[in-house]
Amino acid sequence: MPKGFKNFVMRGDIVTVAVGLIIALALSTLIKAFTDFVINPVIARLQGGHGLGLGWQLGRAGNRATYLDIGSFISAVIYFIVFMAVVYFFIVVPYKHVQARRGVVVFEEPGQLKTCPACLSEDLPAAAAKCRHCGTDQPSGTARPA
């Protein structure tokens, strides 16, 4: 049993995912600091005055619990966009490049799909002769663009 667990943990894709998660967490912390200490002050400055931030007070004035903070939401959206861009350009693109050099295609666009006339599943490859869901024979020439 321990040998089987070791083999499972040491599989290449598990290690790749673990390294990717560690890098993503580190980048997340860095980008969170950027949005908290660079973007948030800019948004607060755009609001002007000495209010709670960019947003509306829904309850008693000065109560943070009833304040609709649009500035924090804008900051979270910017954080998400920056984080996804960093992950794409610093993890996905290099990974695709390395895998392409090894002859492996990753993150490819899905090909033509067709719909099974018997069970109406829509995720069958165009070249499929049988439905993977219900097992019926498939007619050819019913492909639709992915």
From TrEMBL:
UniProt key word Cell wall biogenesis/degradation: no
The cellular location(s) given in this protein's UniProt record come to: Membrane
Which residue windows are transmembrane per the record? 12-31, 70-93
Concerning Pfam families, the annotation shows: MscL
* InterPro entries membership: MSC/AndL (IPR037673), MscL_channel (IPR036019)
Q: Does the keyword field hold Transmembrane helix?
A: yes
Identify the main location. Answer: membrane
Question: Which SUPFAM superfamilies does this chain map to?
Answer: Gated mechanosensitive channel (SSF81330)
What keywords are assigned to this protein?
A: Membrane, Transmembrane, Transmembrane helix
Q: How does it sit in the membrane?
A: Multi-pass membrane protein
| An example Gene Ontology molecular-function term | mechanosensitive monoatomic ion channel activity
Its GO CC terms?
membrane
Name by which UniProt lists this protein: Mechanosensitive ion channel protein MscL
